[in-house]
Amino acid sequence: MDPFSTEGELLNIHNAFHSGQYQNVVDFDTTALSTENQLPARVLKLRAQIALGQTENALEVEEDTPDLAAVKALAKQSAGDTDAALQLAQDLAENYPENNTVQVLAATVLQAQGHSEDALSLLSKHQDNLEAVALIVQIHLQQNRTDLALKEVQAAKRWAQDSLLVNLAESWVGLRVGGEKYQSAFYVYEELASAPSTSAALSIVGQAVAELHLGRLPEAEAALTAALEQYPDHAEIIANTIVLNVLAGKPSAELEAQLNQIHSSHPLLIDIQEKSDLFDVAAAKYSPKVSS
Amino acid sequence: MQSSPNMLTKFESKSSRAKGIAFHPKRPWILVSLHSSTIQLWDYRMGTLIDRFEEHDGPVRGIDFHPTQPLFVSGGDDYKIKVWNYQTRRCLFTLNGHLDYVRTVFFHPELPWILSASDDQTIRIWNWQNRSLICTMTGHNHYVMCARFHPTEDLIASASLDQSVRIWDISGLRKKHSAPTSVSFEDQMARANPNQADMFGNTDAIVKFVLEGHDRGVNWVSFHPTLPLIVSAGDDRLIKLWRMSDTKAWEVDTCRGHYQNASACLFHPHQDLILSVGEDKTIRAWDLNKRTSVQSFKRDLDRFWVIAAHPEMNLFAAGHDTGVMVFKLERERPASAVYQNQLFYITKEKHVKSYDFGKNIESPPMLSLLKLGSPWVPPRTLSYNPAERAILVTSPTDGGTYELIHLPRDATGAVEPTDVKRGQATSAVFVARNRFAVFSPASQQVDIKDLSNSTTKTIKPPAGTTDIYFGGTGCLLFITPTTVTLFDIQQKKQLAELAVSGVKYVVWSNDGLYCALLSKHNVTIVTKTLEQVSTLHETIRIKSATWDDSGVLIYSTLNHVKYSLLNGDNGIIRTLDQTVYLVRVKGRNVYCLDRNAQPQILAIDPTEYRFKLALVKRNYDEMLQIIKTSSLVGQSIISYLQKKGYPEIALQFVQDPQTRFDLALECGNLDVATEMARELDRPQIWSRLGAEALAHGNHQTVEMTYQKQRNFDKLSFLYLATGDQEKLARMAKIAEHRGDFTSRFQNAVYRGDVEDRIQMFKEVDQYPLAYLTAKSHGLTEEAESILEACGLTEDQITIPSLQEPFKVAHPIVPTFKSNWPVKAAGHSSFEKALLGEVNDEEEVAQDSFETGDHDTAAVLAKDTMEEEEEDASGWDMGDDINVEEDVEFVNVESTEAGAGSSEADLWARNSPLAADHVAAGSFDTAMQLLNRQVGAVQFAPLKDRFLEIYKCSKTYLPASTGLPPLVNYVRRTTEETDSRKVLPAIPRDLETVASVDLQEGYAAMRTNKLEDGVKTFKRILHTLLVNAVSSDSEVEQAKKIIATAREYILAMSIELERRSLSTDTPEGLKRSLELSAYFTIPKLEVAHRQLALMAAMKLAFANKNYNSALGFANRMLANGGSPKLMDQAKKIKAQCERNPQDAIDIEFDQFAEFDICAASFTPIFSGSPCVIDPFTGAKYHEQYKGSVCRISDVTEIGAPASGLRLFVPAQY
Question: Start and end of every Coatomer alpha subunit C-terminal domain (chain B) (predicted)?
Answer without folding.
Answer: 852-1207
